[in-house]
Amino acid sequence: MNPKESQELTTTFWRYLWSSILISISASVGTIVDGIIVGNLIGEKGVSAINLTTPLLQFMMTISLILAAGAGILLGYALGKGDNQRVRSIYTLSMGGSLLIGLLLTFVGACFADFITGILCENDELFIFTKEYLRIVLLGAPTYMLMWAISTMIGIDGSPRIASLALVIDNVVNLSLDIVFMKVFDMGIAGSSLASIVGHIVGILIMCRHFYGKKNNLQFTWEYNASEWKNIVSQGTPLAIASICLTLLLLSANHIFLKTQGENGLFIFAICMNLLQIYNLYLAGTCRTLQSLGAIQVGKQNQEGFLLILKKSVMFITVSMLVTCLLISLFPNIITQMFGSNDPYILVESNHVLRIFAISFIPFCYIYLIMIVYKLYNQHYMALFISFALSLTVIPVLWGMSHFAPKYTWYSYLIAYILEIIMIVILHKITHAKFQLTD
Q1: How many domains does the chain have?
Q2: Is 110 exposed, middle or buried (CB count within 10 Å of its CB: 0-12, 13-18, 19+)?
Q3: 439 in a structural domain
Q4: Which helix (DSSP H) or strand (DSSP E) does residue 76 occupy?
Q5: 130 touches 120 (CB < 8 A)
Q6: Is position 147 within any domain?
Q7: CA 222, CA 424: separation in Å to the nearest integer?
Q8: Contacts of 149 (CB under 8 A, 6+ apart)
Q9: Sequence-ordered alpha helix ranges (H) in 157-188
Q10: Helical H runs in 82-140?
Q11: Of 128, 198, 303, 346, whose CB neighbour count within 10 A is largest?
Q12: Rounded to whole angstroms, how far apart are CA atoms 397 and 407?
């Protein structure tokens, strides 16, 4: 790669990265501020209820990862090769599947809200809060599915700025309507989920601008290749499995912390999961950029270009994690108070717990980034192993610590992620995995 090509790719990398980071910042900050608003307007039970519904949202994200993220990698390959027919086929299948799944979830929410809430929440005092929030989320499921799908597609097709602008406005609308619906119209926690749906609708309408631009390669076609479903599912499976395992982890952790630490412990854990959103804002942005530009370089068989993108991704995420960890470690009590609690016990406990989780999320971010790298290098077995281990390793460690060393339960995540890194290194050496670009 000559210096000019390297400079052009570097410029493209930073353009995609900052647009992706803006998307992630909008989503992560929106989630955190949403929790702060709910905590101050409704109370600690409202924050806990939203955390209890997180596995449902994670499940919806899992489906989207198969239909959108998996398709996005293939879309990058096709764009790199200039195969426009395949681009249209993949786009049609991904968008059509996202819409159908969204409508199916709407039906499920209308008919089985009580049943699903019972699975997520065993606490009678939190049940009604959880049900009110969950029911509206499911009714508006198509907006979640389409928002995730369209933002992925247009980002890879060259409009990351439109996607980032749309999602920023989405969250501004969401947070503004949070206050309006909950305080002015007295809708309670249901107002928070309704505000999210209205924000998604606004964001989708803004993203539609891409389809009227000169560079749009995304068009529906009736001549799609149904066999692409296998490829889409194959590409999205490791990411989807990681999401499924994270869903199981959230369910298990919510039950364990509620049972062993009580409502106060669950509230502190909810704050920690909100802090994960801070790490997620640059992790998701970096991974989105690595997947989009990396897939295009794979399509071009440009090894040097891929390594350049990977190097810059690792450097950016390392600096970001260290800064975040330092800030959380310096101001844990201020963070807890932002979520509406001045309880002395919670402040003392969170002062310790937040610092532990701030460190625990660092290996998590590296593990997730490594999974993306294996995926782009078509090391499917390694990617699948990491996708399973990413969360499933935490569950037995968390269970064991809560039963045999309850005093150190909060260290479960950190211990599990260290064990995962050791297992990845060992398995890599055993399988002799090679980093060589193939599509």
Answers
A1: 1
A2: exposed
A3: no
A4: helix 70-81
A5: yes
A6: yes
A7: 43
A8: 64, 67, 68, 94, 95, 98
A9: 160-179
A10: 84-120, 124-139
A11: 346
A12: 14
Least confident of 169-183, 275-289, 389-403: 275-289
What amino acid occupies position 397?
Answer: V
Length of the chain: 439
> Is the per-residue pLDDT at 205 higher than 90?
yes
Cα separation of 215 and 27, whole Å?
A: 26
Confidence of residue 174 (pLDDT cuts 50, 70, 90): confident
Q: How far apart are CA 424 and CA 119, in angstroms?
A: 33
Q: Give dist(CA 435, CA 376) in Å, integer.
A: 9
Q: Say whether pLDDT at 15 is over 90.
A: no
H/E run at residue 13: helix 3-41
pLDDT of res. 31: 62
Cα angle: 232, vertex 235, 237; to 5 degrees: 100
Structure token digits, residue 35: 């929790």
Distance of CA 334 to the CA centre of its chain: 25
> Could you tell me if 278 and 28 are in contact, meaning their C-beta atoms sit under 8 angstroms apart?
yes
Burial of 318 (0-12, 13-18, 19+ CB in 10 A): middle
Q: How many CA atoms lie within 13 A of 123 on its CB side?
A: 18
Read off the DSSP letter of residue 340.
T
What tokens were used for 75? 């879309």
Buried b (16+ CB within 10 A) or exposed e, 341-375: beeeebeebbeebbbbbbbbbbbbbbbbbbbbbbb
pTM confidence score: 0.64
Is residue 300 pLDDT above 90, yes or no? no
Asked whether 179 and 188 are in contact (CB, 8 A), the reply is no
Domain hosting 345: range is: 3-431
pLDDT value at position 433?
Answer: 58
Tokens of 397: 């460690």
